[in-house]
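Ticket opened by: R.M.
Priority: normal
Category: complex prediction / small molecule

The reporter submitted a protein together with manganese (II) ion and asked that the result be attached to this ticket for the collaborator who will pick it up next week. Submitted input follows.
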Amino acid sequence: MDISKIPVQNCNTLSTVDDVGEADVILLGIPLYDGKPLKFISPSNLLRMFSHLVEGNLNKNDIYTNILNIFDLGEITSSSYRQLAVDLPTIINFINKGYGNKKYVFIGGDHTISYFTTKHIKIDTLIVLDAHLDLKDTYLHRKFNNATVFRRLREANNELNILYYGVRGYDEEEMEYIKNSDNIHILKDLTDFESYEMGETYLSIDLDVLDPSLIRQVEYPEPNGITFNELISVIKNVSKNTELKSVDLVEYLPTHIDRTELSTILKLLYNVAYHLQKVI
Ligand SMILES: [Mn+2]
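Result attached by the on-call engineer:
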């Protein structure tokens, strides 16, 4: 199969290498919200449009984006969960077969995309950086959406360890659920990461984990969030102590263009790519 046959709209603006084979990290946009294409512009396409805004250095150090080996595949074409469940493995199998195992950065979309992406990456632990737990049994009378996604994921695989960081908005029901399961934990400090045997990990970053002063365009903003530096420290810590396999950045729901938010997310994206690549 050639790359033009896989279900993506190619747009390689964020690539730093010319060919998939040279890449350590593959970027894929999954702009689905509640199982439907986003009504507004796709977050990953917005990042592509504003990629020129970012200076070349990563967070406060002398490592530059020119050392990154990113191949930007573009946007998945799926317009429903049913299609996503078919298209995502098609893409990942195509990459695995033709180029060997790669690491991915998936850009959502809402948090439900993690339900699909984590099924195709072999991991022991899912690390969720989120203001919320997303562990409700139902939300708005529905079983599957961004407030229930990790409950559904656990029902599908109760062996999966889940570690949360940055959580500050939840229901009693969700806390009870955690108390009754022995492999879901909420971490309070950066050093807590060292107390867990995490093995192979997947890092899911809901952008509402950041303080709303940094990112305002999320569906459920929650005051008193973490700083950008704290977020980078978590990523660093995770990549140091585990085998980080892939990452997603979700829940950015832009209705207007905000350059400050976009440069924050781009910088985050490049830092994530660096830490994924570093451990290869
Ligand atoms: Mn979430």
